[in-house]
Amino acid sequence: MDLSSDHFALFGLPTDYAVDLALLGERYRDLQRDFHPDRAANKSEREQRLAVQYAGMINAAYEALKSPLFRARYLLQLSGRQDQSQTTTIGDHDFLFQQIDLRERMADIGTAPDPHHAYSELESEVEAKLLAQQNLFAQQYAAGDLDQAEQSADKMQFFSNLLNQLQAIEDTLDD
Amino acid sequence: MGISLTTAAADHIQRNLDSRGSGEGIRLGVRTNGCSGLSYVFEFVDEVDTSDVVFESSDVKLFIDPKSLVYLDGTELDFVKEGLNEGFQFNNPNAKGACGCGESFNV
Amino acid sequence: MALLQISEPGQSPAPHQRRIAVGIDLGTTHSLVATVRSGSAQTLADENGEHLLPSVVHYSGDGTVLVGAAAAEFAASDSSNTLVSVKRHMGRAAGDTASAYGSGQLQSSSGGNNAEGSEGSNSAEDSNSAEGSDSAEGSNSAEDSASGMVKFETVAGLISPVQASAQILAALAARAESALDGPLEGAVITVPAYFDDAQRQATKDAATLAGIKVLRLLNEPTAAAVAYGLDQGAEGVVAIYDLGGGTFDISILRLNRGVFEVLATGGDSALGGDDIDRALADYLCEQAGQPVLDDLNRQRQWLIEARRVKEALSDSDLVEASVDDWRGEVSRNQLNTLAKPFVAKTLRACKRALRDAGIGKEVAEIGSVVLVGGSTRMPLVRQQVAEFFALEPLLSIDPDRVVAVGAALQADVLVGNKPGDEMLLLDVIPLSLGIETMGGLTEKIIHRNTTIPVMRAQEFTTFKDGQTAMAVHVVQGERELVSDCRSLARFELRGIPPMLAGAAKVQVSYQVDADGLLSVSARETATGVEARIDVKPSYGLDDGEITRLLEDSYEHAREDMGVRALREQQVEADRLIEDLSAALATQGKALLDEDEYHCLDVGLQELAAVRKSSEDHRPLQSEIERLAHLSETFAARRMDAAIKKAMTGHRLEEFEGPA
Asked: Which of B34, B40, B46 sits opposite C4 (nearest CB)?
């Protein structure tokens, strides 16, 4: 059985961008209670190996639905859209200029008078933009506008990458 | 007759019940298996069976099903240390033979 | 005569069926073993009533090996033959852990230990021009046989940290078998959460050398959470701050009806109380006007005094120090000044872990903070941790013993002594796994703090016509450059069918199991040919080296090996027979057709017959493999049926909702 065929069905959730995270977590833990390798620790080696695979697949499905970005990508994939985020280009000039601006500010954090303050200010701003983009995605997806939704997912990816890089910078601030 | 506990056994059972946080007492019994025919049942009790015979010794409740009582009547339960090893031991007057391990016996 | 223990209701074992399992805390400065007896987890003491076994091993010329307090007596007088804090060197190369004290006998094994068992058959001809394969092929037999792990020069020869750790583990296993009066079924061994793959593998290798079956490698902070969680029925988010002798870990967990879900982990696998000892020893030498010490025995002397003073300062404000005829005083404030930079470093890691757990700005979400490790006895550490989390830390369980106790609780569950127990640990991988790409950059395959077990697949393509091999370099760490990450292994994929460039597609699958250990497999997807993988651990022992050490070991004479192998196969056969019979009885008719059922039924009887008659492990092993292979489809169908059942359960719930 290919567990990756439908993660929503695996957790008994409706196929939708809005997900009840508490419920998702509960069902994830219920599944792991049955399939985690610890449950097979006393069984034969083959059963243990099988348990590793199933638990791994359940983990992967959980991760795909838990993260707003991965969930968006996964919904697009279910709708028959290939993930082309590696090769895709964004034609939205305003968005690109905004990205350049944000990146320049990120590069300046280290030399700011109060780097920690500069960091948290920029982080809050990017987080807010990411959230807005997620809401936009939800509307576009619900309206069946997959082209627009795909663009939103790509933009979410930009913000998410930016947050990761910001955190890497924060890690170096104290050292 | 009945079943008795040494002070050391009672202390240890009480301590184990306390650290477990729940349990009505201890169940003693026998069942048929093992190299010499019968083996002991020695467990915490969460749910009391109405047919159980209850003994109380040093404030510890011992639950025994009537069928097992025949084999256990007169038994003294002790707690002993042997080198690094420690645990409980049944001094059972009914046991006529036991396998070398002491985990099973016959009557 | 066996002594009885109290069992859980309905769980009285049949005679000779007690499963003895322990938890082992293999620590930098000391180690412990614990077990569940009569329903409660407790650490086991030695003949003298000591629970803590100093993690010290002493080797003498006549082959005698001492472990623990007896070995520690030689720490200052015969320091080059007395190995301390070996945990710091597990899975590490010589350059990784250089330090001013205690490393005088360090020696990289390269060239030192290469005479025997070199395979030398690693012919370079058949792997033509794979991407970046130069370095892998440049390996000669000397490098093949000698791992990059550091070794110590003693009168007993070069000793690896794995061998020294095996001695400590064996001593604890012997203590447990004597206290529990029976053979060990297996052990849960704890490791710092921040241990990378090489360090984990080294720990597992040490257990193999000591003849101990590892039920699970468990992260130390998770073990501590288990000890507290089950003790106090805690729910919510818990932070575990674990500062030991040589390692620091911070883990953030969410507890939910018996499930311990690790949200994030962080730390430093080479930071601990030892560093504070060294700083204090340096300070004492400076006060005494001592020049820089190059004599190992003298260094140890000052270090031992520094540790004593540090520990005494937990209870007093001023402590007298003396080495030889020098006398001085150290105040707690002075110690705090020396220790503060190290504590500050741990708090920065806490901040990162909170952020990674997704609760960076909501420190108030943390319900409790648990302190683990002897170094958390320092008042400075307690005060700073309390301040950082704005919470009074929990200390009700002895910080030295809490890890072993948690490990014992999990061992008891894993070995099957508590069926139906709700406890489940969901742990994470502490450091990202990646591979080397063009230009010496890392490409992350599995990100840190991903829940394990986890699998990832990746597709590679050949870039030359007729290329039949490829080299993949796996690294662990968060940095962009490969040279800044830890090299785990190099994999040579061979046997790719010769095709035009770009036509062969090789799918490489990475799997991290519940112990946090990585394994890799590869397949050519266009033709379905399995590519062979040669693994060369960068800092570990390869399988050949482990086998050699096992054979060399006087504790595992050859006949013992045979007996042990047979016993292992018998246990495996019994498990397979038990699992399969039960499955056939309950689901065989529903999931198998008549032929399939018959085939497995006959296979079961055949295995049972061989199990009964065979006195050699080999025929039994091949019979097990045959039946296991036959039953694979059935096993997969049963898992699928179980998953479907779980899913249907959820759907039913939905229908039962408000109409």
From this structure: B40
Please name the residue of chain A whose CA is at the shortest distance from the CA of residue C358.
A67
Verify that A54 and A102 share a domain, yes or no.
Answer: no
Is C268 among the residues known to form the active site? no
> For A175, which residue in chain C has the nearest alpha carbon?
C345
CB pairs under 8 A between B and C: 96
Predicted TM-score (pTM) of the model is 0.79
Domain holding A40: CATH number?
1.10.287.110
Query: φ, ψ for residue C588 (rounded to 5)?
Result: -55, -45
Omega before C54 within 30 of 0, i.e. cis? no
Inside any domain, residue A83: no
The pLDDT assigned to C216 comes to: 94
Structural domain count, chain B = 1
Catalytic annotation present for C25: yes
Q: Identify the domain containing residue A109 by its residue range.
A: 93-173
CA atoms of C509 and A52, how far apart (whole Å)? 14
Task: Please check whether residue A154 lies inside any domain of the structure.
Answer: yes
Rounded to 10 degrees, the C-alpha dihedral C104/C110/C111/C116 comes to: 110
Q: What is the pLDDT of residue C63?
A: 85
The answer as to whether B56 is a domain residue is yes
Query: Which of A1, A38, A170 shows the shortest C-beta gap to C643?
Result: A1
Q: What's C183's DSSP letter?
A: -
Residues of B in contact with C408 (CB under 8 A): none
- Which ipTM score applies to this complex? 0.88
Q: In the predicted model, what is the mean pLDDT of residues B81-86? A: 75
Closest CA to C634 of C605, C593, C602: C593
Looking at the fold, whether A107 and A157 belong to one and the same domain comes out as yes
pLDDT band at A1 (very low <50, low <70, confident <90, very high): very low
pLDDT at C343: 95
| Average pLDDT of span A2-22 | 83
Backbone angles phi, psi at C9, to 5 degrees: -50, 130
pLDDT band at residue C114, thresholds of 50, 70 and 90?
very low
* Contact of chains C and A by CB distance (3 or more pairs under 8 angstroms): yes
- Is B104 close to C15, i.e. CB distance below 8 A? yes
- Which residues on chain C are in Cβ contact (under 8 Å) with A46? 576, 628, 631-632, 635
Q: Is the pLDDT reported for residue C138 higher than 60? A: no
Average pLDDT, chain C: 81
**Mean pLDDT of all residues in C194-209:** 91
Helices and strands of chain C, counted as H and E runs: 17, 27
The answer to the question of residue A85 being in a domain is no
Write down the H helix ranges in C242-295.
Answer: 273-287
Q: Give yes or no for residue B67 having a pLDDT over 60.
A: yes
What percentage of chain C has pLDDT greater than the value 70?
A: 81
Q: Are residues A60 and A109 in the same domain?
A: no
